[in-house]
Design brief:
D-alanyl-D-alanine carboxypeptidase family protein, 5-stranded antiparallel beta sheet, cell wall biogenesis/degradation, peptidoglycan synthesis, hydrolase, 11 helices, alpha+beta
């Protein structure tokens, strides 16, 4: 290529000047005479993606710009034709490309493209992981080792420790926990921090607290469960950190059984430690989820419950990838696992599913305003990888 595309920007009869890094869509009509086709041939369908910030797709005569490549930063383009175009004394090689949906197509200078499919990205999540649940291998990640606030995703550790103490015994499931804390009652009635309502001096079974904490993401129920496990809130948080240490989770530190930050917990008398929030990396969250699923597979059966009545109150599962929900897709076979949100942590979600012929996948997205949409994309990508095959 002898600088054909660069010269085009300098020739008034070819293309208007670049403004702010974007080529103007206005191309003079007489540009048609400026570009002549020297040769055209069909080539084997080949995948390409955007090489850098420059470039645009035109019709062959270069009288109309179809789209800027910067508008499609993560698109895979499929080239099926190659042409040599002459412009003045310069010649250049162009590819005829289409996106996967055939909604955008046209001719682009080959120097703006790089061979291969566009790398998979999640644009909204600040941290994310896809893990093979059987092997524990991370198959895709973004900022996976950065500890971040994780909100109610923290309850996965609380649920693990509660199930560990229950140990499958009916007597433990039916054990009654009396609520004597006015702070927990007040928390349960809060519009911001509550959910499952507690009555002072009323007793709830461990099983009721488990479902309220899991399905309804009840913060007060999670704290009550922790107190049952260890005898006090402080002792339970120490147990959470000890369990994280035993699993060698170097990017995990807990100050809360529920995932609420101390800035909220202190007003109810449940502040703990110097840090404001639980902070765990996306990879370590996936490891916690893997231990939970492996040791207590009932979590997957329970995780598919859309809603249920617990002590006369409806507990709603906020996992919108379940059947009947807005983001449900049958092929993904999602059967869990846990949502989370605080203003500090943003929207968080741990998902899991097992597609036919594939290993079970665990996905984690942290601080992601499109948590369900991006989880679907992440699961799709994970399933396409050979490391997820049975």
């Amino acid at each position: 290529m002898r600088n054909l595309h660069m010269k085009r920007g300098l020739m008034a009869f070819a293309v208007a000047l670049t403004v702010g890094g974007t080529v103007s869509a206005v191309v003079p009509a007489n540009a048609a005479s400026a570009y002549k086709t020297v040769s055209t041939k069909t080539i084997k369908k080949t995948a390409y993606h955007k090489k850098h910030a420059k470039g645009a797709i035109f019709n062959k005569a270069h009288t109309r710009k179809v789209s800027n490549l910067t508008t499609h930063p993560h698109t895979t383009w499929y080239a099926t034709k190659q042409a040599t175009l002459k412009h003045g004394k310069s010649t250049g090689i162009y590819f005829y490309v289409k996106n996967s949906k055939n909604s955008v197509k046209g001719w682009v200078w080959h120097g703006y493209l790089k061979k291969g499919k566009a790398p998979f990205v999640l644009t909204k999540a600040k941290a994310a992981v896809a893990m093979n649940a059987k092997t524990g291998k991370v198959v895709w990640s973004k900022n996976a080792n950065t500890a971040r606030p994780i909100a109610s995703v923290s309850k996965l550790m609380t649920l693990y420790l509660a199930l560990k103490k229950v140990d499958g015994k009916t007597s433990n499931w039916n054990h009654k926990v009396k609520i004597t804390s006015r702070g927990l009652v007040s928390m349960s009635r809060s519009a911001d921090c509550g959910g499952f309502h507690f009555k002072l001096n009323h007793s709830y079974t461990v099983k009721q607290l488990y479902y309220a904490a899991f399905l309804d993401s009840s913060n007060n129920s999670a704290i009550a469960l922790g107190k049952w496990v260890s005898g006090s809130n402080g002792k339970f948080i120490k147990k959470m950190n000890a369990q994280a240490k035993s699993w060698k989770l170097g990017k995990a530190h807990f100050v809360s059984a529920s995932g609420l930050e101390n800035s909220d917990l202190r007003r109810y008398g449940y502040g703990y430690g110097k840090a404001n929030a639980n902070k765990v990396s996306a990879k370590d969250v996936a490891i916690i989820a893997r231990h939970l699923i492996t040791s207590y597979p009932r979590i997957l059966k329970d995780g598919k419950i859309g809603s249920m009545k617990v002590n006369g109150q409806v507990c709603h599962n906020y996992n919108n990838l379940l059947k009947g929900r807005k983001y449900y897709r049958a092929s993904l076979k999602v059967d869990g696992l846990k949502t989370g949100y605080t203003p500090l942590a943003g929207y968080c979600f741990v998902g899991t599913g097992q597609k036919k012929g594939k290993q079970r996948v665990i996905t984690v997205v942290l601080h992601d305003e499109n948590e369900f949409t991006e989880t679907k994309s992440l699961m799709d990508h994970a399933y396409r990888l050979s490391s997820m095959n049975n």
